[in-house]
Amino acid sequence: MQTMIFDIDLAGHHMEYLHHIYAGALRNKEEKYIFYLPLEFQDKKRLYEWESSDNVEFRYFSQQEIHTCTCSNIYLNAWRTSILLKKKVAETKCDRVLLISFVELMLFIVLLLPSKVRVSGIIYRIYLYDWQKMGLLRRLLEWVRYKSAVGSKCIERLLVLNDSCSVNMLNEIYSTDKFRLLADPVPNVDFSRLKNLREELNIPANDKIYLHFGGLSRRKGTLDILNAIAISNIEEMQSRTFVIAGKVYDEIKPDFQSLLIQARRNTNVLVFDRFCTYEYLYDLCFTADVILIPYHLTNLSSGLLGYASLFHKPVIGPSEGLIGQLIRSFGLGITISHICSEELLKAITYDYYPTVDSSYAENNTTDKFINTLLDVENKHNTD
After folding, report:
1. All domains of the chain in start order, with CATH
2. 3-state secondary structure (DSSP) of residue 343
């Protein structure tokens, strides 16, 4: 059996997911795994350890292939990526394909790939949350996309990230069992090696630390956080420090810098505008008191919820969508009905947060993620 892991975009959590899959491949020596990835992976892979193994091979797309699949038209991108996938399936002669991003390619894969190849992939964002806001044409497109995937012989499993309700609804709507729940993996952290950074960062002992980290963008609520601090007064911000860590997206840099100047008039705001190592992020989570996730896009999971549960830190996040459901279901913090600076400021100064336990983290282990993606249980049953 030969499986190809196909991914043309290493943004977000993709590197983390690829490393988890790699770890799973090392445990399954009797099968061959081919990772087909962008060339930039060679630079980014230093973030993790990649033990060499005879059953794992890395291959890379050319710059031209990546360029062809990343134009401004999402449908043209999906078509070209599907053609590229077909080419790599023929080249590798693989039996199975695992797609790190699936939805955009779903319809074209059905048309292009041979039925003997078995395809599985990850679905991050479920259209059900947007159904009421959709026009008739968009609804029709989503229905055709999913219906064709469910009916296709080559589509083996549709793996929905961390959304059991949507899995049940989709299986019922399309009269299938192809939709499966995929855990949102919480990293394995060696707590004995964690370091409290309060002293190193010169944060006063009595300050409450609010942490916002990851890719810093408009949809992540980064500007809302800075504006909330900027519109506050010094008394409200007394004994509070804000730590913002991660790469600031170019689209918000001018606004970010302007709001940062205003925010720093009221309190201590530390910014690390760079890609932070996972070890450093673990230390920041260990040091922080509250994690801020005022996301505007709420109908998909967030890896930061796992960090909150793992480190027993409450979050401030949206009440809507999947993220809101998860925060409430697992008691991960407090939610805001409308993400804006005014509401966020109220939540920040509320000061009464629930005690967070590790139940969410225990429900989303890396082993669950790996076993589902690589279909370990089904293979064992077949054997």
Report:
1. 2-185+365-382 (3.40.50.2000), 191-363 (3.40.50.2000)
2. helix
Query: Strands (DSSP E) along the chain, which ranges?
Result: 2-6, 32-37, 56-60, 96-99, 118-123, 155-161, 179-182, 208-213, 240-245, 268-272, 290-292, 315-318, 333-336
Q: How far is Cα 207 from Cα 197, in angstroms, rounded to an integer?
A: 13
Going across the sheet that includes 333-336, the strands are 268-272, 240-245, 208-213, 290-292, 315-318, 333-336
The Cα 373–Cα 378 span in angstroms is 11
Q: What tokens were used for 25?
A: 């491949």
Residue 105 exposed, middle or buried by CB count within 10 Å (0-12, 13-18, 19+): buried
pTM of the entire structure?
0.89
- Average pLDDT of every residue of the chain: 92
β partners of residue 119: 97, 155
- What pLDDT, on a 0 to 100 scale, did the predictor assign at position 379? 54
End-to-end Cα spacing for the chain? 13
DSSP for 157-201 reads EEEEET-HHHHHHHHHHTT-S-EEEE--PBPP--GGG----TTTT
Residue 81: Cβ within 10 Å count = 24
Alpha-carbon gap, residue 321 to 107, rounded angstroms? 25
Cα–Cα separations (whole angstroms), residue 280 to 193, 205, 217, 286: 11, 20, 20, 10
* Distance in angstroms (rounded) separating the CA atoms of residues 158 and 330: 25
- List the chain residues with pLDDT less than 50: 380-383
